[in-house]
Amino acid sequence: MARLFDGVQANICWICREPGANSKEHKVKASDIKRQFRGAGMFVAAEGERGRPAQGPGSKHLKFQVPICHTCNTTRTQSADRAYDRVVRAVEQTTINQSEIDAAVQACLRQGDGGAFRYFGKLLGCQIADAGHPIPRRLGRFVAGEVRNAPLHLWARPDATYAEMTSERGGDIQYAAHGGLVIITKKPKFLPVGYASTTTIGPIQFHYRYSFGIFEKVAIRSCRDFTAECARAVVETPMTALDHRKYGYTLSPE
Ligand SMILES: [Zn+2]
Known about the structure:
It is a single chain. The chain has one domain (13-251). With 254 residues, it is of the alpha+beta class. The radius of gyration is 18 Å and the shape is globular. The model is unreliable at 250-254 (pLDDT under 50). Strands 7, 8, 9, 10 and 11 form a 5-stranded antiparallel β-sheet that branches. It contains 10 helices and 11 strands. The two termini are 29 Å apart. The structure holds zinc ion. Zinc ion binds next to strand 5 and helix 2. It comes from Brevundimonas denitrificans. This is HNH endonuclease.
């Protein structure tokens, strides 16, 4: 069987598997950060942490740590970046109502070539690489444009954290967030069956998930350290009801 997962290797780009990885991807797209904050002071914070000031959209605090190659971060994914921009603009023009958001996302995905999926796939892969977990090779090939389809799901919804903040403080809040990496596991052994994450721009949270295919589910079993870590984490630090709401699982279309 062809190799289905790769670990992070120094200097190798996880998307094209070529050497020369020296370009760091933004966790939240620079144009979204500029539009959200428009020169206002920016703080970067993980949950439970005090914020660190960020100098601007180029701040290292706003980028993933594991680099990809310059070509994969620019020309190779340019059409995907633009497709993502179209989805964000369409969703921002809704009244932040779930059925309108769904219609806006679906209309964009139908019109385009699915490029927005490649953008979210790039974000997800960078998060997997930063966490040091096995990266599905098919995800890299899809992001690179070498294969047309990948088992990625995408939906959007009003962000629960943003809604809470506006109800406490009132008015519009300048806010952008990436939700960190979630590993989806399946009972009874809690073997990994996919990866998911979220990205929030203002009031809208995008949720994206990569589901392993049947061969990937088999292949991941040989990554024993990873599967043991997943099973242990499910038991020792299960997701709380608050985590579920924050990550939007209650609105999963599946
Ligand atoms: Zn590359």
